[in-house]
Design a protein that fits this description.
This protein is α+β, with helices and mostly antiparallel strands. The protein folds into 2 domains: 292 residues, DD-peptidase/beta-lactamase superfamily (Beta-lactamase), CATH 3.40.710.10; 78 residues, Sandwich (Immunoglobulin-like). Helices cover 26% and strands 22% of the residues. The strands form 6 sheets. It has a 7-stranded antiparallel beta sheet, with helices on both faces. Strands 17-16-19-20 form a 4-stranded antiparallel beta sheet, with no helix packed on it. A hairpin with a 2-residue loop joins strand 11 and strand 12. The termini are far apart.
Length: 499
Amino acid sequence: MYKYLFLVVTLLSQLCVAQDLESDLEQVATDYQLMGMSVWVSVQGTEEEVHVGLRDFDRDLPVNELTQYRIASISKAISALGLLKLYDQGAFELDDDISNYLGYTLRNPNHPNTPITFRMVLSHQSGLQDGTGYANFLNATYSQSPIPNINELLLAGGSYFTANMWRTETPGSYFVYSNINFGLIGTLIEAISQTRFDIFMKTEVLEPLNITGSYNIQDLTDINNVSVLYRNVGGIWTPQNDNYQGTMPTPPDLTNYDIGTNGAYFAPQGGLRASASDLGLFLNYLNSDGTGSTLAISEQTLLEMKAIAFDYNGSNGDNYGGLFNRWGLGLHHANVNSGDQICNLNTYDTFIGHPGEAYGLISDAYVSEAENVSFSLLINGSFPGYDIGNNSSYYTVEEAIFEVLCEYFGNTLSTAEFTSEEIKIATNPIHDILQITLSTPTDVERYVIYNIQGRVIISENDVQTNNLSIEASTWNTGVYFIKLTTSKGTLVKKLIKHP
């Protein structure tokens, strides 16, 4: 009887936490005068969704679980996954010169002897930036037929080239967040796969993840589900994008589309339309290192994607007002310091994902592997606009939502079955042997140990024990992490190796 009573109390506790989440988010929407908002959260595999406000003001259509937003720069993270699938298939190496795949030599004019590599482009260290030629090129891409080749923007003498498309620093040595890197990534996906970018992403990435969204609006099943994006213009809610009013736009004439010359046409940098739960599927995929999915990308490649490729040291990049301090390959590492803080730095480890902003929309999608919590956030407009936060470089409305989510995470984790306290590390700091015991009657099914840069040191599957004894005498001194997967969930623990 006591067992059932405990179960009922636990379920009631979780229900109250979920109800608090909804009411707290509704209050944030009221306080910041949001048009509409979708939030998806997951705590150790338990998912919740909250939807507030309107997706279409003129037609009085509410936001719901089917609402698809143009998610802005979160698109970059999923586009990166598309390119890394080709890498995983052996189509190229990350440190290859991309010129070999474009069909022409691409160099920073300031450093003509330095190859531009896939790793540089994926981590915003290619030397490219969105110079003054970028806007005209993008306008021509969307309005001209045939569309211009991307080399008209990137090569000296091109119709849209401006010298400030390139940084003066050596490629690979300096971080600058830029959209053009991902226009180039879309082009590389096409050149390597010989498939149009939107089609490749739909068939090779989105559908295997069960994501219903698309980089091509013609693929969506119901145009009425697409959220209009708004700004306050002269005191009036004014549509900025996706104001289709229930009518699917006329398909473009792509008869003259030349695959592999300008993948920016389908906006790999910001044009994916997806729901909050679609983004949850992407986050779950990252968090599980690809297990249990039909999207076949190796664990090693996903760990490479999440590993640190750029770490701000005060002079090796533009950290975007304190927000961008650490990056993987297409993934932002947040919660590194106060500028990119999501939850309490002393309680939570790094969150990996991506933020976005365009046409009045604000978006975020992040996962904390250490705590096994994740969330996606989509807002389609704020009447007063957005102000930089008081405690970070995120906007004040994001800070308010993060505060609600972090409280929800903490309250939910306190009632979860499987917590980090159930893992006992007998020797941490480690010298020669790492000894780990689970205090609950469950076995470790698999574990991965990786270093501070995210490189895998050991990976073991089908372990089936609750007592691990791992040889560590050959490890270098420093910080490591162990990711444990059991039938109750996944947790990450920090390890320290001493001499």
